[in-house]
Amino acid sequence: MSDAATKRATRSRWLLLAPALAVLVFAASGPLLIVLIYSFLTPGDYGGVEWNLSWDAWFSVIMEQDFFTDEIGFADAHLSIFWRSIKLSLMTALLTFIFGFPTAYFIATRPKEKRDIWMLLIIIPFWTNLLIRTFAIMELIRAEGTVNSALLALGIIDEPIQMLFTEFAILLGMAYVYLPLMVLPIYASLERFDFTLVEAGYDLYATRWRVLRKVIFPLAKPGVIAGSILVFVPSLGAYVTPRVLGGGKQLMLGNLIELQFGAGRNWPLGAALSLTLLAIVMVALILYVRAAGNEEVRHG
Amino acid sequence: MAKGFDIRRQTGFATVAMACFVILYLPIVLLVVYSFNAGTSVAIWEGFSWRWYQTAWQNEQVQAATIRSLVIASWATVIATSCAVLAALATTRQGTFRGYTFVFAMINQPLMVPEIVTAVALLIFFAMIKVATGYTGLFYLIIAHSAFCIPFAYMPIRARLQGMDLSLEQAAMDLYGTPWRVFRRVTLPQLWPGILAGAMLAFVISLDDVVITEFVKSAGQDTLPTYMLGQLRRVVTPEVNAISTALLAISVVLVIAFFFLSRNKK
After folding, report:
1. Distance from B18 to chain A by nearest Cα, in Å?
2. Which residues 47-76 of chain B have a CB within 8 Å of chain A?
3. Would residue A12 count as lying in a domain?
4. Cα distance from A202 to chain B (closest Cα, Å)?
5. Any transmembrane segments, and where (chain B) (predicted)?
6. B51: Cβ contacts below 8 Å, ≥ 6 apart
7. Is A61 inside any structural domain?
8. Is residue A153 part of a domain?
9. Model-level pTM?
10. Residue pair B72/B139 in contact by the 8 Å Cβ criterion
11. Which domains does chain B carry?
């Protein structure tokens, strides 16, 4: 191609990209920069900010200064919320793996023409409203909900078990809403699996468990890693599920952030907490890209 | 190998898979069933009735929220899909180019950045604009929804474009078709299923959004999901089930349509 033609192609390409980039800069990336600026300001009395440069917001993400003694220590309230968010997100990834792996394997071993229909059954809940699915879990486990009513009717328990507004409820809800995100990538890695490898394993007198552990699992590993990240990332930033199922008692990071923009009236702290969450998510994504890259090198 | 020994079978996997499907659908099925409950409970069955659908239908707040949801989703779908078509044309079938990684990261940003972070960012940014201009209309919600719908509209359109044969367009250009004519008469007709699929995903995603809407909306701008979120704080009646069922029905129909639309191309 001549120089002029290349230039023309470049210009028309960026013209075509312009509308999408404009919308994204205006309502997705651009505002993130403002969050960064806000995290270095001081809070206004009624929300908003005062334009004074300050490190206070970043300081109070994990530290606090005692009001009376000026002693500096860790902010236990924040740390416990960070810990709960990370713990529940890891547990969600584990739980969805325990249920998702056999399910993906089951679908991948169905006859070819039926796999799509099975996958559709996984995809439909994924594309239905997250709030509605969370609400469905809420109705199931509330004091006068289906599970407690059934247990009471059967005489197994005398009074309803408190399940709603506990960490268990949040874990259950997140595992329920994010399960498809685990099944999809594992299925993708198992779909093209060559079962003659399994046959070879059995010919060499391997047990089923050994074949699963030494043949199937290593080859499904990229899918498992992808699934774990896909579940971990939205769980960490979850807002709706802990709000509905945790009931304001069991806060996660998303709720702590919201609090700063509502009753807390500390926008700079909310901004700093948001960026902290973003940083953790980015680290997880980079680790994933690295891991996926390594896998490719090893198998390629 | 002995007959009946299925090398693919793993003990217990089928059972877990079946349990998974039951777990996935049971809560939703119960939610739908109780939307038809004659009583006020969402757990004790008192007979069939349409009562809660009528209640929801006549609830003015629900009516307003429904219309608002549909208006926002329609605008967001049109804007996001148009942007996605142009962006897909610019980023496929020509190899990589300088800035490709940047463009790719920009388009996929709404998928990578946690929704709560974007929500907070938009709250701050739009609060500044609201103060500066005094305008508090639906535009903020429409543009916010458009942004996070772009990657969802972009994916199926790009996939469709990648699968298309360039030679038809080249033939049209050899026959002195202008770029616009070639696009309209050759590219667009082939691309149509991808555009439709992308638009449907964008619509569903916009219709279901809670977090960003909750943070961006001004007073009295509830959409159906944020209205429901507000209701969950009170005593829940099957009215919420009825609204949920209606929303579910829309999503399920669109997703199944999308599924068959994108399957046909293979």
Report:
1. 8
2. none
3. no
4. 8
5. 12-36, 67-90, 111-132, 138-157, 191-207, 242-261
6. B38, B238
7. no
8. yes
9. 0.91
10. no
11. 60-264 (1.10.3720.10)
